[in-house]
Amino acid sequence: MHPKKKAILISLCVSIILMLAKFVAYFLTHSNAILTDAAESIVNVLASAFAFYSIYLTTLPKDENHPYGHGKVEFFSAFVEGVLISVAGIIIILKSSYDLLYTNEIGKLYDGAIIIGATGLINLIVGFYLISTGKKHHSITLEADGKHLLSDAITSGGLVLGIILIQLTQIYWLDGVISIAMGIYIIFNGYKLTRRSVGGLMDESNIELVKDIVKVLQDNRQDSWIDVHNLRAQQYGADLHIDCHVTLPYYFDLNVVHQQISNIDQLINLSGVYETELFIHADPCLPACCNYCKMPNCPVRQEAFKGEIVWTMENVTKNQKHFSQ
Questions:
Q1: Which Gene Ontology molecular-function terms are recorded (predicted)?
Q2: Do the Cβ atoms of 207 and 306 come closer than 8 Å?
Q3: Are 197 and 76 in contact (CB under 8 A)?
Q4: What residue segments make up the domains of the chain, in order of their start?
Q5: Helix, strand or coil for residue 106?
Q6: Strands of 239-248's sheet, edge to edge?
Q7: For the residues of 23-87, what is the DSSP string, one character each?
Q8: Which of 87, 91, 74, 317 is nearest to 196 (CA)?
Q9: How far is CA 265 from CA 244, 274, 294, in A?
Q10: 275-284 vs 239-248, strand pairing mode
Q11: Rounded distance, CA 11 to CA 45, Å?
């Protein structure tokens, strides 16, 4: 089984078991705070189920209808999970606000705390596992699910402390206050997840990723690579697509140009951690490039070399040659 499928299947099975455990804790205690945690677990199960289907799609090979693969569905999956989390947070706040005005009797809080504490610990372990697997295989879906479980573990930890506080002080309205605080935290996490997924769906530039690519090119640049500009990167799940313009000496024949482009392709794929597909447009050099061109013994040089223009994210992403320093 593919590692991503295995990870999300584990998450789904664990989410179902922990959801049942949290509802058991609620029926024991009748605590709204515990009901809040149990209700969020329903979201965990739904999100994990949708994530499993999304990851199934991402492992399908490219086809005629999806020439770039199916990786974009991961951003949609993360968006759905973020929306579900936010909706759960809003419902939790509304329910808890009502129960804050009309408190109900709660009991067996220590039993509930033990159950919730155990579920929180399990979520912590599974969450770190999902994040680690997601980063290794560049899956935003696994990372999102893992971070969701980590936030769930944090809320469970806070809930356990709150339950103990309620039991010690016998101030039962704290149950509603804790629930509202948890609801706000849940909405905040849902917003962050939704924001990231929308950015991916809208092909928002990944600044850190572009910086890494530019650094690889700068650190390994060859004299014949006179200029790189109009560099853009798009991420489709675990696949990365890069297109850019590379200025080469205009007297290179087609075989040499092809070899130079292949060298850049190999450099990016060997140096980076992404499976990268490059679309490189070769531009011929112009006399205005001579002052920063380092080609030795150039037969057509019209101006002496003055200094190298260091490639940065600011100048490499612009759609123009670097005509001056």
A1: cadmium ion transmembrane transporter activity; ferrous iron transmembrane transporter activity; zinc efflux antiporter activity
A2: no
A3: yes
A4: 3-201, 207-316
A5: coil
A6: 227-236, 239-248, 275-284
A7: HHHHHHH--HHHHHHHHHHHHHHHHHHHHHHHHHHHTSPP-SS-TT-STTHHHHHHHHHHHHHHH
A8: 74
A9: 11, 12, 21
A10: parallel
A11: 9
Tell me the C-alpha distance between 322 and 247, whole Å: 10
Q: What is the pLDDT of residues 240-282, one digit of tens each?
A: 778 899 999 999 999 999 999 999 988 888 766 566 778 899 9
Instruction: Look at residue 110 and tell me whether its pLDDT is greater than 70.
Output: yes
* Contact yes or no for 88/186 (Cβ under 8 A): yes
Block residue for tokens 């809930």: 159
* 298 token code pair: 């150039």
In CATH terms, the superfamily for domain 3-201 is: Cation efflux protein transmembrane domain (1.20.1510.10)
Question: Which CATH number applies to 207-316: 3.30.70.1350, 3.20.20.240, 2.115.10.20, 1.10.20.140?
Answer: 3.30.70.1350
Partners of 195 in the β-ladder: none
What is the torsion angle, in degrees rounded to the nearest 10, for the CA atoms of residue 245, residue 247, residue 248 and residue 253?
50
CA distance 189 to 277: 33
Neighbours of 63 (CB within 10 A): 9
End-to-end CA separation in angstroms for the chain: 53
| Crossing angle of the two packed helices 32-58 and 3-29, in degrees rounded to 10 | 170
Each residue's pLDDT tens digit, 124-161: 999 899 888 888 877 777 887 887 788 778 878 877 88
